[in-house]
Amino acid sequence: MQAEIKGGSAFSYVEIDLEPGESVITESDAMSSMDARLELKAILNGGFWRALLRKFLGGETFFVSRFSNQTDSKARLTIVQPTPGEVKCEELNGGSLFLQPGAFLACEETVSLGLQWAGLVSWIAGEGLFRLVVSGQGKVWYGAYGALLTREIDGEFIVDSGHLVAYDPTIKLRLQLAAGLFSSFFGGEGLVTRVQGKGRVVIQTRSIGGLTSWVNPKLY
Amino acid sequence: MDITLLHRPGNTAARLTLAAGETCTAEAGAMIAMSGNMDIETTTHQKGKGGLLKAMKRMLGGESLFLNHFTPKDGEGDLILGTTLAGDMMTFNLDNESLIVQGGSFLCCEHGIDVDMGWQGFKSIVSGESIFWLNLKGKGQVVLSSFGAIYPVEVDGEYIVDTGHIVAFNETLDFTITKAGSSWLHSFLGGEGLVCKFRGKGTVWCQSHNPVSFGWALSSGLKARKA
């Protein structure tokens, strides 16, 4: 499998060349164009109940799409996320990575998708009650609205709610006020997420929630 | 007509320099700025070839009724055009051929090109996603816009493009609205629904992002409109 992320950080899309016999799993409606010989199968996102949980609690779709190349030559698939923004590829080597709801785009078949209780703290911080866990061997593509910043942390780091995209399992979430009561609520920062531990945190430079809350007061 | 594409690919605008007597036909509402000597004529069809019946037909197709024709008086003039959604643009030189363009991707063209709004190749099945199509014919330059980046796909055989990702394609291509993969059920459950299958030899220009999908992603966070 050959894959390349194109379009820069504003309009990332992924071109995947599948060799004969290979396949890739993507979130629902991710395909923008493909070789007509590729086969598409909608599969449950890991069993009925887990798929249901993942849909209602993990912000992902009930079905995921499995694209497979059953021909005898290379075939191309192009996928993209619904919002403009950056997509990153992560190669898992037996480890795992936590993804925030909606961040998952695609993965190799050898990667397993799980759902894990993220806790009330994550929910209050606007990051969802559950989080998606990708683990196993192989490539995972994930993305968000805006560009992605990766930060190695050792100790603690503060992230505005809604901006967290992915983090290592060694990281824990805590909730706190950005500053004192006054500046937290009037300074527009409100609640922030404190991430603690040693590992990587990936944050998005913008958030869809930020855009919709800007649009909302203008609707009538 | 001299075309410069500025600030690609994120915030692209097209700067057109029109010589005396040249006319540029642009999508209504695309003008950002222009020289003071620019004359604008708004018509329902190609300049000088207006027809109420054709305009009605387009209105029924859910498409904006008007085209603006810009002509500089006394000497040359500048015109800057932009789009609502962030994305790239491309220029295309038509040489007595035909290009099918997704309505939302049409930005402007030289006067010598015939903008046929009545093209019904995809029929109403695709208009469900409120897409309309233009058939650009003739000789001259065309500027197309997109949501996201634009990538060309050289089709030789069969290729599938999701309907929301088509910018334009050569008329030499044959197409059908169909399913992705071999099963209707899986195409719908997989969220792909109806896609366009191109056949033959030619080029399809695709936009990396789908405006409809972005609309859905956005709308889940918006509050309901008061009745």
Q: Quick summary of this structure?
A:
The complex is a heterodimer of chains A (220) and B (227). With 220 residues, chain A is mainly beta. Chain A has helices at residues 48-56, 120-124, 181-186, 208-215, and strands spanning 2-6, 13-18, 23-27, 31-35, 39-44, 63-68, 75-79, 87-99, 104-108, 111-117, 130-143, 148-160, 164-167, 171-177, 191-204.
Shape of chain A: globular
Mean pLDDT of chain B: 82
Give the radius of gyration of chain A. Answer: 18 Å
Largest β sheet strand count, sense and barrel closure of chain B: 11 strands, antiparallel
Structural class of chain B: mainly beta
- The coarse overall form of chain B would be globular
How many separate helices of chain B?
A: 4
Please identify the top-level CATH class of chain B. Answer: Alpha Beta
Q: Mean of residue pLDDT of chain A?
A: 84
Total number of beta strands of chain A: 15
Biggest beta-sheet profile of chain A: 11 strands, antiparallel
Gross CATH architecture of chain A: 4-Layer Sandwich
Q: What is the gyration radius of chain B calculated from CA atoms?
A: 18 Å
> What would you give as the CATH superfamily of chain A?
Mitochondrial biogenesis AIM24
CATH topology description of chain A? Double-stranded beta-helix
Strand content of chain A: over 45%
Would you kindly provide a written description of the structure presented here, covering whatever features stand out?
The complex is a heterodimer of chains A (220) and B (227). With 220 residues, chain A is mainly beta. Chain A has one domain: Mitochondrial biogenesis AIM24 (Double-stranded beta-helix), CATH 3.60.160. Chain A has four helices and 15 strands. In chain A, the strands form two sheets. In chain A, strands 3, 5, 6, 8, 9, 10, 11, 12, 13, 14 and 15 form an eleven-stranded antiparallel beta sheet that branches. A four-stranded antiparallel beta sheet of chain A has the order 1-2-7-4, with no helix packed on it. In chain A, strand 1 and strand 2 (13-18) form a beta hairpin. With 227 residues, chain B is mainly β. Chain B has one domain (2-213): Mitochondrial biogenesis AIM24 (Double-stranded beta-helix). Chain B contains four helices and 15 strands. Chain B has helices at 52-60, 123-127, 184-189, 211-219; strands at 2-6, 13-18, 24-27, 31-34, 38-43, 67-72, 77-82, 89-102, 106-110, 113-116, 133-145, 150-162, 166-170, 174-178, 195-207. The model of chain B has no long low-confidence stretch (mean pLDDT 82). Chain A binds chain B through residues 6-8, 10-13, 28-42, 61, 63-65, 78, 80, 82-84, 208-209, 211-213, 215-216, 219-220, and chain B through 9-10, 86-88, 147-149, 151, 153, 157-162, 165, 180-183, 185-192, 195, 197, 204, 206, 208-210, 213-214, 216-218, 221-223, 225-226.
